[in-house]
Each structure stands twice: as C-alpha cells, then as structure tokens.
Amino acid sequence: MSRRHFAFDCLGSALAGSLDEAPGTTGLLIVTGGNETRAGAFSSQASLAAEIAAAGHPVLRFDRRGVGDSDGVNFGFRDESDDIAAALGAFRAECPSLRRVVAFGNCDAASALMLAGGAGFDSLVLSNPWTYEDHQADAPPPPSTIRARYAAKLKNPREVLRLLSGKVNFAKLARGLASAASRPPASGLAADMKAGLAGFAGSVRILIAARDRTGQAFLAGWDPRDPRLNRCPGADHAYSDESSRRWLLARILDALTDE
Questions:
Q1: Three-state SS for 180?
Q2: pLDDT tens digits for range 101-148
Q3: Are 64 and 74 in contact (CB under 8 A)?
Q4: Do the beta carbons of residue 175 and residue 214 sit within 8 Å?
Q5: How much helix, strand and coil, in percent to the nearest 5, is found in the chain?
Q6: Over the stretch 212-231, which tens digit does the pLDDT of each residue have?
Q7: Cα–Cα distance between 88 and 60 in angstroms, integer?
Q8: Residue 209 near residue 232, CB atoms below 8 Å
Q9: Which residues fall within 8 angstroms of residue 51, CB to CB, at 6 or more apart?
Q10: Does residue 70 sit in helix, strand or coil?
Q11: Which residue intervals of the chain are DSSP H helices?
Q12: Which residues lie closer than 8 Å to 252 by C-beta, 6 or more apart?
C-alpha cells in the first residue's frame, strides 16, 4: 500500500491531508483531537492508518485549519464541522470508489463528530469523548471514579491496615468521601453532544479507555446501559500499550466491515 500527501480547500484555507491507499470500498477518516497533528502522538495515527490500509481500507488523515501543515485559523473542536466536511469531500474525490466512510475520533475529535450530528458519515467510532466545559478542564476526577478508587482501597489489606493504624490523613479522606457522594455538574457541552448524536442514523461505537480521566468523565454523565459502549480495561487515553492498541484496531476494523 502507498501513502501520499495532498492539500484540499476548506472555506479558502488549504488543509493538509495524508491518504493511505487501499482497494476497499469502505474507508476510514481519522479526525484528530486537541491541537494534535494528523500524525498523532508518537505517530500513533500514522501507524494506525498503515495497519488499516494493509487490511484493505483506504484511510485519510488531515490537519484542521490552523494546525500542523494547514492554513487558516484554528477555531477549536466546537467549530470543526466545516473542516470535517471538507475532509470527507476530499476523501470521496480522491477515492471515487468509496461506498461507505467510517469516522474515528478520540477526545474532542469524538465530541466534534457528535456535535456535527455524525457529519455525513456512515458509521462513527467515538473514543473517550471530551465533555469538560472550559472552566472544568482542571476539575477533579468524577465521583464515580473516586468511588471506584475507594472501593479498590478497601479491598486491599495493606490500605485497611493503614486506616486502622491511623496513618491515613482523615481530613483528606473526608474530602474524598464528600466528593464521591456528590453528583457531577451538568455539562451543556455533553447535552449538545448527546442531542447531535441522537440525530445520527448510522452505527455508533463508543470506546472508553478504563484508565482515562476523560473517558471516565464522559461515562459519569452517560447511560451505562447504552449497548454502544465498549470499555478497554487498563487502557490509557492514547491506547499506548500493545494490548490496548490491538483492541482499538480490532474495534475500528469491526466498524469498517459492519455493513
């Protein structure tokens, strides 16, 4: 398989794209999160694209306006719908045999896809969607995470011994218990994302890395019975260990082969 780089237009700005070519008629478009370039952290998205293409599916990655090699002003993920639409149009133009296109986004890229109501894709793979408002970015972990942490400590004999021997900071413990009992603040962003996704008719997979605070915060405000949820035990935000990386690859390939 070959990889080539090209530019395409988005409202007068030239966006940089990378296409991993493959003969399949179902392709993957990767939307980057934050201010990350299309290569991904430690070239993780470039590696993912190569593996997906080797399995027979073309893959497009791109830098949104004002990021990486792209021109223009970076308006952030809340205003990324035009960039995503331009990338999807460019993908179809470069690969005219495409019948289906699946979008994958991690963190606020997943949020951007939800806010855009699926952005015209046939299927979505949404990983660790970002639900923090700007003023909540440095907030403590959600109460559900704190409760899980204390439950794990109570199962550990060494931690119980520390508690009984008086080696625990009781003021800190009291603050932690109060946080565990509280309800997470409502997020207007999360409500907008939920409303956007509700209007999407295609298949959806929501991937959550169990060790990721962003994913944990999303789960705190989401229906835990949602059958679209897929949890990866032990994974961090970027699925950086080999087992988690293979898990992520398998979930994306499932979406690409699910007609």
A1: helix
A2: 999 999 999 999 999 999 999 999 999 999 998 754 555 555 555 555
A3: yes
A4: no
A5: 40, 20, 40
A6: 999 999 999 999 999 999 99
A7: 9
A8: yes
A9: 249
A10: coil
A11: 44-54, 81-94, 108-115, 143-154, 157-164, 170-181, 188-198, 213-220, 242-257
A12: 28, 48, 52, 102, 104, 125
Assign residue 50 a region: left if phi > 0, alpha if psi is -120 to 50, beta otherwise? alpha
Inter-residue contact 244 to 234 (CB < 8 Å)? yes
Q: Please give the backbone phi and psi of residue 22, each rounded to the nearest 5 degrees, phi first.
A: -160, 160
Rounded to an integer, what distance in angstroms lies between the CA atom of residue 249 and that of residue 259? 18
Q: How far is Cα 208 from Cα 76, in angstroms, rounded to an integer?
A: 22
Q: Which domains occur in the chain, in start order?
A: 3-136+186-257 (3.40.50.1820), 143-181 (no CATH)
Q: pLDDT, tens digit, for every residue of 178-207?
A: 544 545 555 699 999 999 999 999 999 999
- Name residue 208's beta-bridge partners: 231
Q: Is 215 exposed, middle or buried (0-12, 13-18, 19+ CB in 10 A)?
A: buried
State which amino acid sits at residue 241: D
Give the sign of the dihedral formed by CA 7, CA 8, CA 13, CA 15. negative
Query: pLDDT of 47-70, one tens digit each?
Result: 999 999 999 999 999 999 999 999
pLDDT higher than 80, residue 251: yes
Q: Rounded CA gap, 218 and 251, in Å?
A: 19
